[in-house]
Structures are given as C-alpha cells and as structure tokens.
Protein: Peptidoglycan recognition family protein
Amino acid sequence: MSDYQYTPEHWSQGDPVANYKAGQIVAVTVNDRAATRQAIITVLKKSGYTLVERSSWGAKPPRDTLTPSNWDYSDVVIHHAGHSYSCAVNEQGAIEQMKKAQEYDMHGFYDIGYHYAVSCNGEIFEARDVRFVGSHVMGDNTGKLGIVLLENLAEAGEAWQQEYSRKSLWEKLKGTLDIGRDAVAFDHEMPTKAQLDALTTLIKTLKEFFNLKALGGHREYQLLAPGHEGRACPGKYGMQVVTQMRSAFGLAAPSK
Ligand SMILES: [Zn+2]
Structure:
C-alpha cells in the first residue's frame, strides 16, 4: 500500500503515532488508545475496508464496566462462530449475526467476547472495543486480540474429539445436549476468498499497531490456558486458515 501514512515499525506496545520509531518510549495515554482505535479504522479504510463500527451494527452497550487492556497485544486468536452460523447471509444478515453473537456472549460476559468479526462476504465488524480486554479464551485473555469468522468451520464430531473425550463422566453428562448436536451431521462451510482477503487485511493492519508475535486457533490457546481444556473452535477448516495466516505473516504458534 503505497499511500500508507503509517510506517510499520516494531514497538513493544501499541501506539497511535504515525512513523513511530522503535526504541522511543512514550507513555500511551487513554486518549492515545482512542486515537489508536480510530487509526486502525483509518488504515483499514485506506485498504478498501470500512470497519462496521459498533454504532453501525447496533451493538448494545456493555452490561458493566469492562477491564481496560494493558495495551500489550501480542497474540491473535482465531475463532469460528459455530453451529448456528452460516455464510448464506447478506450484509443485513451479518449484522443480525453480530447481534446474536453479542446476545449470546452477554449471558456470561459484560459484552461480546471477541474484538473483531469477519463475515463470509468480507465485511469487517468491530466487536468488543479494542481498548478493553476480550473474553474469548477462558481464563487467559491478557494480550490476546480475538477475531471470529462468522460461520461454522468444524465438522461433525470435532467437539467430541477435541473437548468432551477428555472430560469426566459428569462433564460429559452436563454436555449431553452439546454432544448430541455435535454428533448430528451438520453443514460446515469453507472460508470464502472475500473473507480470507478481509482477514488478511485486518491482521496486516493490527500488526502495524501492535507488536504481534503469535497467532493461533482458540483450541491451541485453550489447551495452554489454566485448566488445559480442549475446544473444537475454530474447527478443522478454521485451523487451516490459522496455518495459512501464520505463514503469511511469519507469526509463531502459541506457546507459554
Ligand atoms: Zn472460540
């Protein structure tokens, strides 16, 4: 992108200032964070993507005060939205998917858990405001940006293989409904080219503002988190996206 005003440099923490050089330490104030959020939107726009901001998709306000991020994002966690999400939607449908995802997450959290979402048509949505820590890896969200792909990328049986087969009988009983749903053949989808292009642009943009080191699927991060639980997310096909993005951006696999 020849018309970028921002010269990508690697700094230890996120910074909103264009042409910021590594090595200069500047305190990142709360206002700078607002500027960074805005600068991310501007750079996406220059790349041809209009970030669908929370106000544009009708996000509800958080239920309670969110925890400000330490502004130390180093990892990108890829999720899929799961079973009841499909690519067969237009832009309005994708907005409904965002509302549904927020509604679901707000049963347990104060807001939608991820920071960004990418639809099959290649729209990029703002989910939780990036100034706040996400809720997308159980017990371990520090320094992690969450991006969700708005469809199901898992095959039938993956929740059993990745998650329930490791659990106690009691946990299996509690998950009966979930296991039942997983066992029934359901349609999975493949990420679309428009979606992969949008995701690539989003990661490239985030990499300009944060010193990203690793990228992985939710299942990889959850295994490393306290409790070492399994997760199907982001599914077999989502993990193919993970492998592709890691190599495209030279990012490491998650590690402790
Ligand atoms: Zn997930």
